[in-house]
Structures are given as structure tokens and as C-alpha cells.
Amino acid sequence: MPINDEKEEDELWYEFRKTKSPALRDKFIRQYMPLVKYVAGKVAVGMPNSVEFDDLVGFGQFGLLDAINKYDPAKNVKFKTYAVTRIRGSIFDELRQIDWVPRSVRQKSKEIEDAIGELETKLGRTATDAEIADALNMDEEEYHRTVMKVSGTSVLSLNDVWYAGDDNDNASIGSNIEAPASLNPDVIAEREEVKKVIAEAINELPEKEKIVIVLYYHEDLTFKEIGEVLDVSESRISQLHTKANLRLRAKLTNLRKGII
Predict the structure, then answer these.
(1) Mean pLDDT across the stretch 35-56?
(2) DSSP state of 163
(3) Widest distance between CA atoms in the chain
(4) Which residues on adjacent β-strands are paired with residue 172?
(5) How far apart are CA 25 and CA 38, in angstroms?
(6) H helix intervals, the chain
(7) pTM above 0.85, yes or no
């Protein structure tokens, strides 16, 4: 039977934390499999047809199991919040391993990111589309078409932007759930600095790009739902999401180079 009562679920988590009961683990898996499918559906947006939804669900199941085994109800974080990060991280890890992004697309994404990073360091402000296009020796129309071509990489790469920690920590820095005591002081300091830079970078985004990032990552809306909020097409939201992601990646790259 599904768990419908919050108090009952809390009690079951404390019991599982103590006993690691296989029966309880199976109960939690059944309870939260719809969450895996939901996260996989969000990740699937913008992916090429070669990346199948069922594969994403399979990748996400590893993250769900990891979340169930590591969840600590004493931290006062809802399991769903904790699990979404782990499920998404597991899907991204598997996508990296199969390296589904064509090399030419990855290279073009890097070129745009580098141009944004250099421009914004020189200008001391957010670069406009016209300025980025000019730096890439393109007109704005060509730049927008190029952004759409690399949009399939943007969900994956934004997870990289929000990642900080050791090799075993797949939590995004925007959802810093793991206990800091489990990390060494250098990693804690790096994580805090990255979080600060990303928060500042999000605030500096053009207004529509900022709204897309907030609605997608914090309000958990799909591109289609965000399009309805902003009264624009789903493809336009995908473009705004990609542009925001490239700006955020450029900021983090500059941080790692010691420029900011």
C-alpha cells in the first residue's frame, strides 16, 4: 500500500535508518518510482531521439536507490527534495559516460562559452546577444540558430555548473544537502565560493533568462509550462535556458581560472 501520511512516512524512514530493512527499501522504491519518471521526463526535454526515455528512467533508478540508502530524516530535509538531486545526478553521470553529445556540438558550445567569458570579463557586465555574436563573427540570427543547435547539451552542462565536491558527491551546489562535516575544509570553502558565484551570476542574467532558470530549477516547471507563463513558445524557452546556462558556465570557468 502507498504511504499517504507524512507522519507515517517519517516513522518509516527512522525505522529504515536503523534496520535497513529490504522490505522497507522496496516500499520506498515503489512509492518514489513516479518521481524517477518525472525527473527523467524533465531531463528528456531537448535530448536527441537517440536518448530514450526508458534509458533515462533506468539511470535515474540508481539515483533513487542511492538516495534511499543515504537519506537521513534527522536533517529535516524532505526526501523528495533530496531524491530529485540524486536522481538527476545519476542520470547525468550515465549520460556523460555514454557521451551522447556530438563532438562538433560540444566544441561549438565551448566556443560560445569562451566568448561570453572573455567578453564579460572585459566589459564588467552581462554581454548582449549582439556583442556575443560579433565576438563569434556571426550575425544575431546565426548566433540564435547556433544556440538552438547546442540546446541539447544545456541540461547536462548546467548540472556541471552546479556541481562542487568530491568524486562521490553528486549533489548540486544549489541543493547542498550533504552534511558539511563529511567534507574536508578545502572542499567546503570551494563549494561556498562556487555557490556565491552562481547566485551572483543568476542575479546578473537578463530578466527572462533569470525567470526561466528560477522556474525550471526552483519551481520545477517544464519548458512548456514556463512558455505558458511567459507567453512564448517552448523552443524559445529552450533557447533562453541554453543562453543562461552558457553564461553561468562562463562565470564558473572564470572562477576556476582565478579571474573573478
Answers:
(1) 83
(2) B
(3) 62
(4) 163
(5) 20
(6) 6-19, 22-44, 53-70, 79-98, 103-123, 129-135, 140-149, 154-161, 185-204, 207-213, 223-230, 234-256
(7) no
